[in-house]
Write a structure and sequence with these properties.
Elements lengths: L16 E3 L11 E3 L12 E5 L2 E2 L1 E2 L9 E2 L9 E8 L13 E7 L6 E7 L3 E12 L2 E12 L8 E14 L2 E16 L3 E2 H6 L14 E16 L5 E19 L2 E25 L3 E21 L9 E23 L2 E18 L7 E16 L5 E11 L4 H4 L23 E14 L2 E18 L7 E19 L4 E14 L16 E13 L2 E12 L3 E2 L8 E2 L3 E12 L2 E9 L12 E2 L5 E10 L1
Parallel strand pairs: 3-8
Antiparallel strand pairs: 1-2, 3-4, 5-6, 7-8, 9-10, 9-34, 10-11, 11-12, 12-13, 13-15, 14-33, 15-16, 16-17, 17-18, 18-19, 19-20, 20-21, 21-22, 22-23, 23-24, 24-25, 25-26, 26-27, 27-28, 28-31, 29-30, 31-32, 32-34
């Protein structure tokens, strides 16, 4: 597959899922699923776990509640990705409203070195080492990434390291992994859609309403895991500790000298244990618990000049956040053709938030939430499964909701109100679907769903850091996914998803469409393996289309729509012994179209070409 700045391109072939980079540096990536658009939440709405470690930050100064920043993760580190649509698995907690993504890193494989070069002076170099040392298996990935970027002031550099040591002890595999990441980048900001249409702005321009934007980040940590040697039955456990710091500068609209500089400096640690019991082929039960502590600070400081910080802040919090929960999930085969599934979670939040900007709004927050799930799977004939689910998801309130910062000003400002009684927002969802294996080569799957979200909170303008309730929302949608293996060497995939999102209690009268939510998403793919001059060749083609997304200007009830977005990915790989040669291309031909779009957008290049070389040893 073609992988750009981060891992999100790996999800492009998953029906009903759209994940992408904002194009503003390593700031977290949205994952769109089940009608949640992700815009402004930088990965919120979807619970993300890696080796049992939750990746969402419940109170992120940058990107809003639930932001998940996976800039440290590269494709070479990943063994598999599991996608669960909808809040129907009790194994995943905070932010599990649209669904969950569970990622497992590799502990071995072939050693290799590789390099790729592509448009805009983009270079990626990767080294992988895997070896056996007595009872220990080692696995190391090192990656460097550099780009000048498509737009003015959009370059960046990044380095990633993962080192893992694993060993088998009895009936378990123990793994200790360490990761290190550092990145720094320029950010071009967002451009006015109307300005682009009028020709007063060009797609490669940066936002000239402020000084050049930038960012940098460092993250490192250690994770210890225990997994069963074979199968799922047994104890799964994770203990983790990591350090995370990030700085991101954004312009202040209309002020060509001022910046808002967001900062996060956090220590995160915790653990998770899950025991999976199996009772023959009739039933299974998983019981688990998890805890996560998040301590540090987050602040957004006004730089009144390009040179450095001033005395005023948009916000400044000291954060001491503790979340913990217990959960159970099981399945019972009632008949040979009928299986019941179900689960429940109980999660609690113990937060101490020190509002340094408005001390009167400091808060101690202690609340809990219980979310059940249930479902049935019926297999009336061989190769056909029909399922139905109902469940609840939730997210914890963010720091700006519990302890609002107020208008820009100095530390210690008077006034301010805390909201210690704010309940964690819940979502209720249900779906009905099927999976049909027509024959060994033909597969068809589909689902319809409905979700109701209470008092949904969204970022008012992408990248602004300002959040407000848009009212109660509903999402009604359907998805269809078909896969055909035409021959042993040729396969096709296709999918289409349609969702209608509504704001049932709009804060602005008449603005009933969910901004940024496209109605239709469609994709087609083909994979062809051939032999040319005795060398194996693989060709991949993927096409992706998103209908225009609605947005509003001011208080007008009449929605405007972005342009249709389309993307085409091609990749050709040739293997010769231990060498692999690849050529790849990405085309995004629609002018002024972007996956992240509204009144402002981040234009993307129409053409991106590249070559890659990989050697395995």
């Amino acid at each position: 597959m073609n992988v750009g700045r981060d891992y999100t391109d790996l999800l492009r072939r998953v029906p009903g899922v759209n994940a992408y980079s904002f194009g503003q540096g390593d700031i977290g990536s949205p994952i769109k699923m089940r009608g949640f658009v992700g815009t402004g939440s930088h990965g919120g709405d979807v619970a993300v776990y890696i080796d049992g470690v939750p990746q969402n930050f419940p109170s992120a100064n940058q990107g809003g509640p639930g932001m998940s920043d996976l800039s440290w993760l590269t494709a070479a580190m990943i063994e598999r990705i599991e996608v669960i649509k909808g809040p129907f698995s009790a194994l995943y907690g905070d932010q599990n409203r649209a669904g969950a993504v569970n990622i497992v890193t590799r502990r071995g494989g072939e050693s290799s070195v590789g390099i790729s070069v592509s448009s805009f002076s983009t270079v990626r170099a990767t080294g992988v080492y895997s070896g056996q040392h007595g009872p220990f298996e080692s696995f190391v990935v090192v990656e460097g990434y550099k780009t000048d970027g498509y737009r003015d002031n959009s370059g960046g550099n990044r380095g990633n390291v993962l080192a893992k040591v694993s060993t088998v002890a009895g009936d378990a595999v123990w793994s200790l992994r360490g990761t290190w990441y550092h990145g720094d980048w320029e950010a071009p900001g967002y451009l006015s859609f109307t300005g682009l249409l009028a020709g007063t702005l060009k797609p490669r321009d940066r936002d000239l309403n402020g000084p050049p934007q930038f960012g940098d980040a460092t993250r490192y940590g250690v994770v210890l895991t225990r997994t069963p040697l074979s199968g799922e039955a047994g104890l799964h456990a994770t203990v983790f500790v990591e350090h995370y710091e990030k700085r991101r500068a954004q312009s202040v609209g209309g002020n060509v000298n001022a910046r808002n500089v967001q900062n996060d400096d956090r220590q995160v640690y915790g653990g998770r244990a899950l025991h999976h019991f199996e009772f023959g082929n009739r039933a299974s039960l998983a019981l688990g618990a998890e805890v996560r502590a998040d301590k540090g600070e987050g602040f957004n400081q006004r730089w009144d000049t390009v040179a450095g910080p001033g005395l005023n802040y948009n916000n400044n919090w000291g954060l001491d956040l503790l979340t913990y929960g217990i959960y159970a999930q099981g399945q019972l085969r009632l008949l040979d053709s009928l299986k019941a599934v179900g689960g429940v979670r109980a999660d609690a939040f113990d937060y101490a938030i020190d509002n340094r900007k408005r001390p009167a709004a400091s808060v101690s927050y202690n609340k809990s939430v219980v979310t059940p799930r249930a479902g049935l799977v019926w297999s009336p004939i061989r190769r056909l499964d029909i399922y139905a689910n109902v469940g609840q998801g939730f997210r914890s309130p963010g720091e700006r909701e519990l302890s609002p910062p107020g208008a820009v000003g100095p530390l210690g400002a008077p006034g301010g109100t805390a909201f210690p009684d704010l309940a964690p927002p819940k979502l209720k969802s249900r779906d009905l679907g099927f999976k049909l294996q027509i024959n060994p080569r033909w597969q068809l799957a589909g689902a319809v769903y409905r979700s109701i979200n209470r008092a949904e909170i969204r970022e008012t303008v992408p990248g602004s850091g300002n959040f407000a309730s848009i009212g109660d929302t509903s999402r009604d949608g359907w998805e269809l996914d078909g896969r055909v293996k035409a021959t042993d060497t040729l396969a096709f995939t296709s999918s289409v998803g349609v969702v209608k999102g509504r704001i049932n209690t709009p804060t602005v009268p008449g603005q009933t469409l969910i901004p940024g939510l496209p109605r239709t998403t469609a994709r087609l793919g083909a994979e062809w393996s051939v032999t040319a001059m005795t060398l194996p060749v693989q060709i991949n083609v993927d096409a992706f289309r998103i209908s225009g997304a609605p947005y509003y200007v001011g208080s007008s009830p009449a929605p405007l729509f972005t342009r249709v977005y389309s993307r085409y990915d091609l990749r050709l790989s040739v293997d010769q012994g231990r060498w692999r040669y690849s050529a790849f291309a990405t085309f995004q031909p629609k002018e002024f179209a972007s996956e992240q779009a509204g009144a402002t957008l981040d234009p993307r290049p129409k053409t991106d070409l590249g070559l890659a070389l990989n050697y395995k040893f």
